[in-house]
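Wed. Picked up where I left off yesterday with Potassium channel domain-containing protein. The coffee machine is broken again, so keeping this brief.
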Amino acid sequence: MPMLRSLLWVPGLVLVGIVVHDLLKVTVQGGDGTLSQTVHQRVYQLLHALARRTGNRIVLAWAAPTIIVSALLTWTLGLWLGWTLVFWSSPGSVVGADSESPATFWSVVYYVGYTISTLGLGDLKTTATPWRMLTSVAALSGFVNLTFAITFVVPVAEARLERRELARLLRRSGPDAQALVIGALQDHPDGLQSLISGLHQTLNTLETKHDHAHYLHRFHDRTALESLSLALPALGEALLLIECALPGPPPPGLKLSRTLVDSLVRGHAKNCPSPLPAAPPPPSLAPLHDAGIATVSEAEFTACLAQHAEHRQFLRAMVEEGLWSWAQVARTAGEGAA
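Structure written out below (tokens, as returned):
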């Protein structure tokens, strides 16, 4: 046992290195670190399974704060355990400040805890210069953890707000894909460009942030008004209506808008892996006709949609992952006006 204990510094330093690398990967380089990705996926899968079983979307709405807290706890507990193993590997490395008696295991845990939290209470101390230096390194790692935790939380809060802002804008512009197209054509001064080039900057910013922070794809909101899982597929279906249902050449900027939407929904499917559903039923053209908007024939429309079947599968996957129904995205044949 003494021999085994003396080697604990090895896994301890390895664990500290993994945590620091993961922390820097998530907060600076972008993407998911191996450690945080594992934790995020397990937490999300648990919440999603519970939400699906209970039919309660509020459970899924808790994914965002739960993922954030789980990441912060993982980094903090990882540093705490790693440095505890390092200091515990050498008997007598930590002693009482007054008694000079070797610290027990739980006293070492306590010592590491207040060291990485930068409290520095002083009722325990190290006995030799190398251990004092390691104490400084441990305190520095704790400071880095605290600093980068703030760096992690603030952009996440901003990105979540931007998701809600876009969802609110789209849902208020029209409750479904057909309403978005009708509203753009009849009620907006910029016409169809309000759904195309008017959203380029917002979509590009959102796509960039989701590509930098994959865990954003696992965020959900409990109300339809603020849910990007409804608003983005509705926009995607509206863009397909513009491309496939309206006569004439596609408006300028439509390809870029569809590319940005496609990137977001594919990223969502990659980070929220569920079986890809079949393409949804074709949207009804009746609401456009009722609004006095000319369209191509049903045959031309159906043929064009068939070319984008995979894209529409990803749109539907995003809707169903958020526990919504496709009927909230677009009216299909046989459905009445919204």
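Quick read: Residues 1-127 form one domain.
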